[in-house]
Amino acid sequence: MGLFTRKKKDNAPENRPVPRHIAVIMDGNGRWAKKRGLPRKAGHKVGAETFRTIATYCKDIGVQYFTVYAFSTENWKRPQDEVDALMNLFRSYLKEAAETMFERGVAVRVLGDLTVLPEDIRAQIAEVDEIADRLGPDAATASLCINYGGRDEIKNAVRAIAQQVKAGELAPEDITEDTITANLYTAHMPDPDLIIRPSGEIRTSNFLLWQSAYSEYYFTDVLWPDFKTTDLDAAIDNFNNRNRRFGGV
Ligand code: FPP
């Protein structure tokens, strides 16, 4: 034992339980930029850095899965220059983030309907997957949902299950909740325990609809580009004071 020992508090980050899976709706980038007289894309750029910081912090404190909403199936309706800016951000960021986060032991994954993304971004996502695979199945995982919509995901799962029934591989009476879970983009991960939405908006916006059945929600006015590791600590402390009953008493 050293000469100086630090007395640890019960709620010190290193002493408390953490959720296994945290998800975030990264909201407020546009307002963050507007407040500074900057174009909206500047907010997305800082938001991407916040993703990297918080994803790495999650790994460091023992959160196994961190999942964020980066581009929804509805975001194509935004002005073309903003859609282009977000695609360019993915272009310049995805592989680079996957490599730097690999060094920190975090596997970056991309979830969503990727079939309609530009070819070069899809190729980059394939490389991101290869980098993540090198960390093995037990690595802490940070997933970016791109062209993701909860309803779209469930529709695609239903289609895949219908195909299995049509092919005679599955009887309708054998379809269970687990069958649906297994056909979602998130099949390989547990449901989120905690879903955080910054920026003061209080809705789910089509994010992880099936998976959030028993998730705890945490809302904060902080805008995503301003979101700090201390804000994550506050959300986790709040989560740890909740009484999760999963429909029981
Ligand atoms: C919502 O804020 C945010 C988005 C639609 C995009 C989120 C994307 C990022 C943070 C970039 C992530 C990219 C990588 C590569 C990690 P908003 O634009 O709706 O903000 P507002 O409600 O203030 O207008």
UniProtKB/TrEMBL annotation:
InterPro entries, A to Z: UPP_synth-like, UPP_synth-like_CS, UPP_synth-like_sf
Residues at the active site: 27, 75 (proton acceptor)
Binding site residues for Mg(2+): 27, 216
The keyword Metal-binding is assigned to this record: yes
Keywords: Magnesium, Metal-binding, Transferase
CDD domains named among the record's database cross-references: Cis_IPPS
EC top class, as a word: transferase
Described purpose of this protein according to its UniProt entry: Catalyzes the condensation of isopentenyl diphosphate (IPP) with allylic pyrophosphates generating different type of terpenoids.
Name this polypeptide is given: Isoprenyl transferase
Upper taxonomic lineage: Bacteria, Bacillati, Bacillota, Clostridia, Eubacteriales
